[in-house]
Amino acid sequence: MTALPGLGTPQLASPDLLRSTFRRHAAGVAVITARGATGPVGFTATSLTSVSAEPPMISFGVGTGSSSWPAIAASDHIGVHVLGEHQGDLAATFARSGADRFGAPTGWCEGPEGVPVLDDVLAWLVCRIVARVPAGDHRIVLAEVVLGDPAGRGRPLLYHQGRFTALRD
């Protein structure tokens, strides 16, 4: 392929091209939780999106090979937690395979519909899953907001260039 003026040399589509591109895209950080057959499950997500205001609906992606997928596939309700800049360690815990995500020092309680609700987050929602849409090796989960609390204090945690970071003034 030939270089484009001011843009460099295009690359053919590949997982590496997608990963490299999205490392340059700053994203908010959320933790998605659900009640699993053997206890609570959860994972860090940077794919959280507001879909609709009426009815209030969100979406996120989850890998079908992830340890959380079986619970998300079987659950009627999930929790969505917007993390603050002080919660990089929590985000890393929920992103790490094999971690005891709900053990100390993670603070949480059982919330509405049995959904695990994390302590000290900027905002949380309990949502009813309305669809799981196949998308390659992931599913896009669409969920309608049932209730929540947006009143946490602080600034959001971001994910950029492969690490958790904060906003700069």
TrEMBL record:
Organism: Streptomyces malaysiense
Keyword check for Oxidoreductase: yes
Biological-process GO terms, alphabetical: pyrimidine nucleobase catabolic process
GO molecular function: FMN binding; riboflavin reductase (NADPH) activity
InterPro entries in the record: Flavin_Rdtase-like_dom, NADH-dep_flavin_reductase, Split_barrel_FMN-bd
Gene3D superfamilies: Electron Transport, Fmn-binding Protein, Chain A
Keyword Oxidoreductase listed: yes
Name this polypeptide is given: Flavin reductase
